[in-house]
């Protein structure tokens, strides 16, 4: 009998992708009365509990007899690092005040920029770490964090440094992205693009990806093209905020560049789904933002499915879309976008990991990271069927059971 550090089982139902990425209609692995063997931070074996319990002896065991077990959630699109809030602007929006008027009054994104730039490094680190611990309570085990609220390249580098300095204290894995968010109000646009390009060498030491907000009111297709071209030369992974406010041709850039993920896509022309599929890119959908925008627009989920595009889900946590809960994004993906519970689970695990170019997690198979969620529900259909409750019982990160005080559940000290 082999010795391992952790056994999970018996498990009422285990559900996972068989490989990545997952496309609509691909097979999945569903095991009733399942078990998982873990050694260190990796999964060693997955199968029936009868088989796993006979083959392995665990230093520690966590039972999940009444529970669903899945890979840990991955949030591939967040604006987690900023100071301040804008809750008062919700009332203005409800009164019909245009965003341009909110900006004129000193609100909107530039208000968040001012608050963030004015905050000290220690204040921003504290904010970031607090949010990283919070997301873990909802089952997120890996998260992408963008800069973007500095605007000035030197401030963006500062934010990237703060993200990196927080990694050792974070309870989960963090992927950093350099976001080119909005043009400054007091600088020539061409000069600004040149300044951004001039910051790329330093940013590359701190960020895995570059992301450009290409849209009406943000950056033009040509400006985005110029940034992506230079970022690609320096080895950045490429991401895009595309076709959120309007279609101005941003998603067409997937034909020119190896864009890993195109995000939002509320105004994506259906025919462009084929181009995304041909490139092998991911469509990352953000249903919480649709709700916060009070928008009637929806990304063309059926066209993306039919084209064979892998779809991921994220929270898009920001001052305008204030939710750290990936479960909420999953629930809304079903009720707003018509995605099935299985499709939602794959979008929030294997495909979200794939969208971050992470090939070592999001799947419960031997050799993958032991990032796992034990749920207080009996099967995967409950994930987006039940609304509004934190359905997490236990989070396991790299083979370690997170402290019971974090999750509100009782775990033996040997497992904590």
TrEMBL record:
<keyword id="KW-0479">Metal-binding</keyword>
<feature type="domain" description="Amidohydrolase 3">
    <location>
        <begin position="115"/>
        <end position="401"/>
    </location>
</feature>
<keyword id="KW-0408">Iron</keyword>
<dbReference type="GO" id="GO:0019557">
    <property type="term" value="P:L-histidine catabolic process to glutamate and formate"/>
</dbReference>
<protein>
    <recommendedName>
        <fullName>Imidazolonepropionase</fullName>
        <ecNumber>3.5.2.7</ecNumber>
    </recommendedName>
</protein>
<dbReference type="GO" id="GO:0005506">
    <property type="term" value="F:iron ion binding"/>
</dbReference>
<feature type="binding site">
    <location>
        <position position="77"/>
    </location>
    <ligand>
        <name>Zn(2+)</name>
    </ligand>
</feature>
<keyword id="KW-0378">Hydrolase</keyword>
<feature type="binding site">
    <location>
        <position position="244"/>
    </location>
    <ligand>
        <name>4-imidazolone-5-propanoate</name>
    </ligand>
</feature>
<feature type="binding site">
    <location>
        <position position="181"/>
    </location>
    <ligand>
        <name>4-imidazolone-5-propanoate</name>
    </ligand>
</feature>
<comment type="similarity">
    <text>Belongs to the metallo-dependent hydrolases superfamily. HutI family.</text>
</comment>
<keyword id="KW-0862">Zinc</keyword>
<feature type="binding site">
    <location>
        <position position="149"/>
    </location>
    <ligand>
        <name>N-formimidoyl-L-glutamate</name>
    </ligand>
</feature>
<keyword id="KW-0369">Histidine metabolism</keyword>
<dbReference type="GO" id="GO:0008270">
    <property type="term" value="F:zinc ion binding"/>
</dbReference>
<feature type="binding site">
    <location>
        <position position="86"/>
    </location>
    <ligand>
        <name>4-imidazolone-5-propanoate</name>
    </ligand>
</feature>
<comment type="pathway">
    <text>Amino-acid degradation; L-histidine degradation into L-glutamate; N-formimidoyl-L-glutamate from L-histidine: step 3/3.</text>
</comment>
<dbReference type="Pfam" id="PF07969">
    <property type="entry name" value="Amidohydro_3"/>
</dbReference>
<dbReference type="GO" id="GO:0019556">
    <property type="term" value="P:L-histidine catabolic process to glutamate and formamide"/>
</dbReference>
<dbReference type="InterPro" id="IPR032466">
    <property type="entry name" value="Metal_Hydrolase"/>
</dbReference>
<dbReference type="InterPro" id="IPR011059">
    <property type="entry name" value="Metal-dep_hydrolase_composite"/>
</dbReference>
<feature type="binding site">
    <location>
        <position position="149"/>
    </location>
    <ligand>
        <name>4-imidazolone-5-propanoate</name>
    </ligand>
</feature>
<dbReference type="InterPro" id="IPR013108">
    <property type="entry name" value="Amidohydro_3"/>
</dbReference>
<comment type="function">
    <text>Catalyzes the hydrolytic cleavage of the carbon-nitrogen bond in imidazolone-5-propanoate to yield N-formimidoyl-L-glutamate. It is the third step in the universal histidine degradation pathway.</text>
</comment>
<feature type="binding site">
    <location>
        <position position="316"/>
    </location>
    <ligand>
        <name>Zn(2+)</name>
    </ligand>
</feature>
<feature type="binding site">
    <location>
        <position position="316"/>
    </location>
    <ligand>
        <name>Fe(3+)</name>
    </ligand>
</feature>
<dbReference type="InterPro" id="IPR005920">
    <property type="entry name" value="HutI"/>
</dbReference>
<feature type="binding site">
    <location>
        <position position="79"/>
    </location>
    <ligand>
        <name>Zn(2+)</name>
    </ligand>
</feature>
<keyword id="KW-0963">Cytoplasm</keyword>
<feature type="binding site">
    <location>
        <position position="77"/>
    </location>
    <ligand>
        <name>Fe(3+)</name>
    </ligand>
</feature>
<dbReference type="GO" id="GO:0050480">
    <property type="term" value="F:imidazolonepropionase activity"/>
</dbReference>
<dbReference type="GO" id="GO:0005737">
    <property type="term" value="C:cytoplasm"/>
</dbReference>
<feature type="binding site">
    <location>
        <position position="79"/>
    </location>
    <ligand>
        <name>Fe(3+)</name>
    </ligand>
</feature>
<feature type="binding site">
    <location>
        <position position="241"/>
    </location>
    <ligand>
        <name>Fe(3+)</name>
    </ligand>
</feature>
<feature type="binding site">
    <location>
        <position position="241"/>
    </location>
    <ligand>
        <name>Zn(2+)</name>
    </ligand>
</feature>
